[in-house]
Design brief:
ThiamineP_synth_TenI; TIM Barrel; thiamine biosynthesis; alpha/beta; 8 helices; transferase; globular; 204 residues
Length: 204
């Protein structure tokens, strides 16, 4: 997998923005390289509504050359023919993914060296490492691991790695300087009053 895909990786749900399709297009247009649809939390879409939304997101991704990843939903990822899937430590194991994903991008969340070394990475394309800093965007994110652990984890694998958790315009460069090939952000863009400016700043 081309590690440049991870350079600016946005994670969001259909309820993350006031005008999700319009705001996502703004983010994609100005430089987001990868998007993960993570439909969890409050006021989320399900069933056909989610499928319809995902197809619309896919069309915008294709318009701007943005890679589309689905979080922990094998059916949806297959149904819309997404570019890949992302799974956490408590989700389905990479080994158990259907054969459909053999030639797709598979992302895995890793929070420490133990999780990295205990995971079968044969089918994994990249790892998301974190939370590097404290975050309120994901209720199940756990305690911040810090820059040192980010560096230790990335030094122990050849897989491309994206730092996640509390990433902002002020600290993202430190992540890139300590082993991360890219950064995953949620609130840095979803809660921004100026999405274009925020995306541009995170790409400097």
């Amino acid at each position: 997998m081309n590690k440049n895909i991870l350079r600016l990786y946005l994670i969001a749900s259909s309820s993350s923005f006031n005008n999700p399709l319009k705001d996502l297009e703004t983010a994609f247009k100005h430089g987001v390289t990868c998007f993960q649809l993570r439909e969890k939390g409050e006021n989320i879409k399900t069933g056909q509504d989610l499928e319809d939304f995902a197809f619309k997101v896919k069309a915008i991704c294709q318009k701007y050359g943005v890679i589309l990843i689905i979080n922990d939903d094998v059916y949806l990822a297959e149904r819309i023919e997404a570019d890949g899937i992302h799974i956490g430590q408590s989700d389905m194991k990479p080994d158990d993914l259907p054969a459909y994903f053999n030639d797709k991008i598979v992302g895995l969340s890793v929070g420490n060296i133990k999780e990295l070394e205990s995971s079968n990475l044969d089918r994994v394309s990249y790892i998301g490492v974190g939370p590097v800093y404290a975050t309120k965007s994901k209720n199940d994110a756990g305690d911040a691991i810090g820059i040192d652990v980010l560096k230790q984890v990335t030094e122990r694998t050849q897989l491309p790695a994206a730092a996640i958790g509390g990433i902002t315009e002020d600290n993202y460069k430190l992540c890139l300087d300590n082993g991360a090939d890219g950064i995953c952000v949620i609130s840095a863009i979803t809660q921004s009053a100026d999405i274009e400016q925020s995306v541009t700043a995170l790409l400097q």
